[in-house]
Amino acid sequence: MPEKLYRHIFWDMGGTMVNTYPEVDSALAQAVRAAGHPIEIMEVAPLTRRSIRFAITTLAQRYDLSPDYLRSAEQAVKTRWEKFPAPAMPGVHALAASVAGKNLVVTHRDRRSACALLEGLRISVDAMVCAPDGYARKPDPQMFAVLLEQTGADPATCLAIGDRPIDAVAAHAAGIDAAMIFTPGVPLESEADYTVDTLTELLPLIAAPESGAGARE
């Protein structure tokens, strides 16, 4: 039995709940190629794992492209997701269903895109904060703090799950333990408390509804 069981999960969205990276990486690479520059997906992947904004800025500078040109490629993917959502990450439904408390989302994604993905994949959450609604982006902990205040959750009973180093930095700044999912072939350093290859590896850390009374309050 793990030393600590968590009652609430703070979820990142892209790359954590939803497998968005393959399509975004491909779209950005294709846009760079269309502008006349050879590029491989594995040049894009380490950049998007820091953030999509960072990837666009870096690629624009590296290949002398307009950031708006690359943002339009990303937006085309997001528009497509409204009808054809990216696939759910393996294990997300099982892990979310196992939570005794609340499933909470902190994302840089705009609310329209986030809701379309969640609804299309039938993923239910209790509350969500989106940076474009006027909140600071991670690694700033503001979005975590807002949800902690809204729900009254004790940070010590929460686990934040993400796929980028900034997810763990933001969680720790809010007093929340962090888990990080690694992308195969994309080495990243992280201060996360737990590192896993799949979401199901985190199941032993979660206080299930039937065991909620024994979890930390």
TrEMBL record:
GO molecular function: phosphoglycolate phosphatase activity
Domain of life: Bacteria
InterPro entries associated with the record: HAD-like_hydrolase_sf (IPR050155), HAD-like_sf (IPR036412), HAD-SF_hydro_IA (IPR006439), HAD_sf (IPR023214), PGP-like_dom2 (IPR023198)
Keyword list, A-Z: Hydrolase
Hydrolase listed as a keyword: yes
One CC-aspect GO term: cytosol
Listed name of the protein: HAD hydrolase, family IA
Organism: Actinobaculum massiliense ACS-171-V-Col2
